[in-house]
């Protein structure tokens, strides 16, 4: 092979690697530019503020899910836990209790369900998909029972509502907090041994156990984290919507899986990671906001969500098979 051919092949490989690592970020920029061009109101201060606030709540809910899937497990109860926390808070506030007590009760929901999931999956080694379907169904049923199948309206949103509406220009304070949380999560994932254990679990769990890593404790912590962040998101949704919505979790199911799996296309190709999830959440928020401004129907928006989820699943499965083939 000539020097020219070698340089051309190396340039092509570098270009391919660049798009594999940063293609999701480029797609986000492209989507924002296209919608801003098609609908100038997309870039208005009010729309940006609303988009960032909703994306922040979703990103918070999906943080624990990201690491669970990265470790080779699954949690499909996260959205139902958020819905139950949402209804518990709304019911307590509507009955005259303070927001502080209601928030503690909502947080307890996340801890309990995260602990149950973690114990059954990590300690008793039961199938994660089956267990989290069961606990998610339980959480969803209890949420519906609290409101007798209907929503619970609130007269005020308390200090949580006040927090949601604190802004730095067009950027909500909540967005700043979530960004800092994700920055901390990135440091833990990339700079501490936790991150190495996390991805090693998915590739070869037996080798991680033989290395003396407390795998069961690690998985238990991940499920508790998923429960806690889901419940916090549910609490924030109570104030954001000024109500308890028993079936609100269903709208986050596809978005959660799409964000985590699509996020696996960024930086760590085929590996779910927090920066990828955050980018995918913002991408989905921009797509849904822009689609609404363009008058797309709900069915059309669902088609886009499904297509993105399919892309994310395909990339993650392909990358994992390729990785295992080299082990």
Automatic annotation (TrEMBL):
The chain crosses the membrane at residues 18-39, 51-69, 76-93, 99-121, 128-148, 168-188, 218-237, 249-267, 274-296, 302-319. Keywords: Cell inner membrane, Cell membrane, Membrane, Transmembrane, Transmembrane helix, Transport. The keyword Transmembrane helix applies. Its main location: membrane. It is found in: Cell membrane. One of its GO terms (molecular function) is transmembrane transporter activity. GO terms for cellular component: plasma membrane. Coiled coil: none annotated. Signal peptide: none annotated. It comes from the Bacteria. It holds the Pfam family BPD_transp_2. It is a multi-pass membrane protein. This is Sugar ABC transporter permease. It comes from Allorhizobium taibaishanense.
């Amino acid at each position: 092979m000539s020097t020219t051919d070698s340089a051309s092949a190396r340039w092509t490989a570098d270009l391919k690697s660049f798009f594999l690592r940063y293609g999701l970020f480029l797609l986000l920029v492209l989507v924002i530019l296209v919608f801003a061009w098609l609908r100038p109101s997309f870039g208005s201060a009010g729309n940006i503020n609303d988009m960032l606030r909703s994306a922040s709540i979703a990103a918070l809910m999906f943080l624990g899910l990201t690491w669970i899937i990265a470790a080779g497990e699954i949690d499909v109860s996260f959205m139902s836990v958020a819905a139950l926390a949402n209804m518990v808070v709304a019911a307590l506030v509507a009955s005259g209790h303070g927001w502080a007590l209601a928030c503690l009760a909502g947080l307890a929901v996340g801890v309990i369900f995260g602990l149950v999931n973690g114990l059954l999956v990590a300690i008793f080694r039961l199938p994660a998909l089956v267990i989290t379907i069961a606990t998610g169904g339980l959480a969803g049923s209890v949420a519906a029972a609290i409101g007798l199948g209907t929503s619970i309206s609130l007269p005020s949103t308390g200090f949580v509502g006040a927090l949601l509406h604190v802004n730095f220009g067009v950027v909500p304070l909540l967005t700043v907090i979530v960004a800092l949380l994700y920055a901390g999560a990135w440091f833990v994932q990339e700079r501490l041994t936790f991150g190495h254990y996390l991805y090693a679990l998915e590739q070869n769990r037996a080798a991680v156990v033989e290395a003396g890593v407390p795998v069961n404790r690690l998985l238990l912590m991940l499920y508790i984290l998923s429960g806690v962040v889901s419940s916090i998101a549910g609490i924030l949704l109570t104030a954001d919507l000024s109500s308890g919505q028993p079936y609100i979790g269903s709208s986050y199911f596809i978005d959660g899986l799409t964000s985590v799996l699509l996020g696996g296309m960024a930086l760590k190709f085929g590996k779910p990671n927090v920066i990828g999830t955050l980018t995918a959440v913002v991408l989905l928020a921009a797509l849904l906001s822009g689609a609404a401004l363009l008058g797309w129907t709900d069915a059309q928006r669902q088609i886009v969500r499904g297509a993105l989820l399919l892309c994310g699943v395909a990339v993650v499965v392909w990358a994992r098979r390729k990785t295992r083939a080299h082990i």
